[in-house]
Amino acid sequence: MAVYASHSAIQILLGAREEGLLTTIFGPPESLRLYSRFPGLVNKALEYSGVDCLSILKDEGHVLIPSGSIVEYVGYDAIVKSGIPYFGLKELIKWESEWDLKLKLLNEAGIPIPKTFKDPSQVDTIVIVKLPGAKGGKDFFISKTPREIEVNLEKLKENGKIKSFKDVCIQEYVVGTTMYAHYFYSPIFDRLEITGFDIRYETNVDGMKRLPPTLTKNIQPSFIVCGNIPVYPREKLLETFIEYGERFVKTTKRLIPPGIIGPFCLECVINEDLEPIVFEFSGRIVAGTNIYMNGSPYLKLYWGTEMSVGRRIAKEIRIAKDTERLTEILT
What we know:
Elements: E1 2-4, H1 9-18, E2 24-27, H2 29-36, E3 44-47, H3 51-59, E4 64-65, H4 68-74, H5 76-82, H6 92-97, H7 99-108, E5 116-117, E6 127-130, E7 141-143, H8 146-158, E8 169-172, E9 177-186, E10 191-204, H9 205-208, E11 223-230, H10 235-255, E12 262-270, E13 276-282, H11 300-303, H12 309-322
Parallel strand pairs: 1-2, 1-4, 2-3
Antiparallel strand pairs: 5-8, 6-7, 6-8, 9-10, 9-12, 10-11, 12-13
């Protein structure tokens, strides 16, 4: 298993070790140091130098395990060019990286999503403006006036963060509690498994909660993820979450065959009617699963024992290899 040195690498490496699979971690030298601190966690480390590095990993028989860092720092083109086997739905990287495709997929699945605006001039409510890619909330901002949005977008354009206004998603800000639902779809068992839920701990918006409103009116909130917190939704919500996941799986099979493989996440706000509104998705493991590094209680419902999503990935690969069905989980 080839794992990028960031994001959710520790639990993936640990899960591979628990399932008896070998691993190579790759990334910039300054990132690799962390993983060498934990005895026996890594079998091999490799400095990342672009497509050539992926080609080396391919020649050595590795399977690439996607994460947010793979989406953001390696990218679809390098993965395709290298030809390295990819655990998951490789084409979903393109859909996850472009807002129009991402929202199309959720709409086609019949999953409730917030209202979106094509142009700042259309905005008539509080919105959150989001950049493309897996940036962990960096440079997102909230606004309610078209002029303010245009000014902020011009600054992002001047700083090279976006090429045009079309790069961003202007989305209605739904008031409610955030909840990120984690899933795993297994082609080997033809089964959707719910693996857990988290809340993202974001700076500085979460820190602003500790200040009186009179002191925060001139502070621009930011949404940079710095950690994750476990959350257990009410059982009456579980059926809704499972139905959303099933719709997502079914729609990816129709629009992007062979469909989703392995972990994914639906990122939600729960409104006052207890309806989850999905504002985006991640088509691979999310860092929020790190809260279950010692094992998810939800996976115990399927396997009789708690396990991390990292181990669940390794288990799917090991079972597929043992039963000669690797082609069903690799793209």
